[in-house]
Amino acid sequence: MTSQRTRLQWRMLASTILLFLLAAVVADAQLSPGFYHWTCPHAASVVKAKVDAFVEADRGLAADLMRLHFHDCFVRGCDGSVLLDSTDPNVLTEKSALLNNNSLRGFEQIDKIKMELECACPGVVSCADILALVARDATVKDGRCRYPFEEVGDTFTRWD
């Protein structure tokens, strides 16, 4: 009976280790600079071109676009929920919440970027990823960032 119990404990330990290894592999498959390389190869360049044009026209918009990404990630993670409009006038979304209403800017620009990406790659690039790409490109375009970036293809990555 003791050897059977020991075998069961070893199996449980092996299963737990296998589960952690599987979780590590899955966690490594997150967004990377080349994430849309095959599914929407021009996604990053489309976003960069649009952000560059928007920030050229209005320098203050760079900070607003970065702030949109912050507000999206601040409440329950980066999920694009800050872009949602309410379908019920009695329900507030993050976009229309008291603290965000009339203080966040850049929704129209995000909509234009999303529309262009939908034409190029329908249903591929998520709103959360668009906000992340826009925030990255707005930071670089702003020029006051002292965080070193290296251009790789049509994306920017951090120097380590």
UniProtKB/TrEMBL annotation:
Protein keywords: Calcium, Disulfide bond, Heme, Iron, Metal-binding, Oxidoreductase, Peroxidase, Signal
Record's keyword annotation contains Transferase: no
Active-site residues, record numbering mapped to chain: H71 (proton acceptor)
InterPro entries: Haem_peroxidase, Haem_peroxidase_sf, Peroxidase_pln, Peroxidases_AS
GO biological process: response to oxidative stress
Species: Marchantia polymorpha (Common liverwort)
Protein name: Plant heme peroxidase family profile domain-containing protein
Catalytic activity: 2 a phenolic donor + H2O2 = 2 a phenolic radical donor + 2 H2O
